[in-house]
UniProtKB/TrEMBL annotation:
This is Sulfatase-modifying factor enzyme-like domain-containing protein. GO terms for molecular function: formylglycine-generating oxidase activity. It comes from Winslowiella iniecta. It holds the Pfam family FGE-sulfatase. Gene3D superfamilies: paralog of FGE (formylglycine-generating enzyme). The lineage of its organism: Bacteria, Pseudomonadati, Pseudomonadota, Gammaproteobacteria, Enterobacterales. PANTHER family: FORMYLGLYCINE-GENERATING ENZYME, SULFATASE MODIFYING FACTOR 1, 2.
Length: 292
């Protein structure tokens, strides 16, 4: 090989290595910034004992809060200390993770495409299926050297109820006040472009534990499998849900249910592979916890 050609080849290889090195450094920086921000946004929750389930018979008119049978067995639960993110995972967070892991970004459904710019803005909750949500939290934990995962149903309800108190709505004052502590229909449309949609995180006052969007802005995936009779046989210490099942628990607000579907004791479930075709429906979100 002639010397000029050899020099050119070496130069190209060196340049390519430099470019890859620069790219790796940028990814590492983005990853560290994401980890740091996520840890800073964690809220410490002191563990303790609480009565999990429909506590309506214990307060006020002594009537059930809901008509649903799956939350009616009021049972004692003891939780260890944990931390939970004050915000849902946003597209800003998930996009960084997806680029590092070389993952495709989920597409928005056909009916939402005209509003894609708003639906997938940086501060909008990321629309994920259960496995995507769990993979993200576990990757974040590994990157931070923390034991991170999706919350258990018990952890979520305990946090939503301000440490297990008899709180009906996970808002700043325990009341359901559209337009003040969660979005009205008009505010939601203005922020997202259409009805039946998430809106950007942190727009309304947090709960007393400083948690945002625990009511009114979509549902969070839980680690637990769902069973309608689980409360009758739940373990007392750090319950994890049934060993197996067909659906996963989701907690929070499902659009269309109004105040009823926003109560802290309201249970819901969805198949974990919702959106498995790569097209995800907004409202299925994630919030990570650190287990201490």
């Amino acid at each position: 090989m002639k010397l000029p050609v050899l020099i050119t080849l070496i130069s190209l290889i060196t340049s390519s290595c430099d470019n890859n090195s620069g790219l790796d450094i940028r990814k590492q920086k983005s990853q560290q910034e994401l980890v740091n921000r996520s840890i800073e946004n964690m809220v410490s929750v002191k563990g303790g004992n609480f009565r999990m389930g429909d506590f309506g018979p214990l307060v006020g008119d002594e009537l059930p809060l809901t008509t649903e049978p799956d939350n009616k067995v009021l049972h004692d639960v003891t939780l260890s200390d944990f931390s939970i993110s004050k915000y849902k995972v946003t597209w800003r967070d998930y996009d960084i993770y997806a680029k590092i892991k070389h993952l495709d970004k989920p597409e928005v459904p056909y009916g939402y495409k005209d509003h894609k710019d708003k639906v997938q803005t940086a501060d909008m909750p990321a629309a994920l299926n259960w496995q995507q949500a769990r993979d993200y939290c576990q990757w974040l934990g590994k990157s931070a050297n923390k034991e991170m995962d999706l919350p258990t149903e018990a952890q979520w309800e305990y946090a939503a109820r301000d440490g297990g108190k008899f709180v009906i709505y996970a808002t700043d004052n325990g009341k359901f006040e559209r337009g003040r502590n969660l979005a009205s229909v008009e505010q939601g449309v203005e922020m997202s472009g259409m009805r039946s949609m998430n809106y950007p995180v942190g727009k309304f006052p947090p709960t007393p534990l400083r948690l945002y969007d625990m009511a009114g802005n979509g549902v969070d995936w839980m680690i637990d499998w769902y069973a309608p009779d689980y409360y009758a046989k739940s373990t007392k210490k750090n319950p994890q849900g049934p060993v197996k099942g067909e659906k996963k628990v989701v907690r929070g607000f499902q659009n269309g249910g109004g105040a009823f579907a926003n109560q802290t004791v309201f249970r819901q479930s969805r198949k974990p592979d919702v959106g498995k075709s790569g097209v995800l429906i907004p409202y299925y979100n994630a919030r990570c916890v650190i287990n201490h």
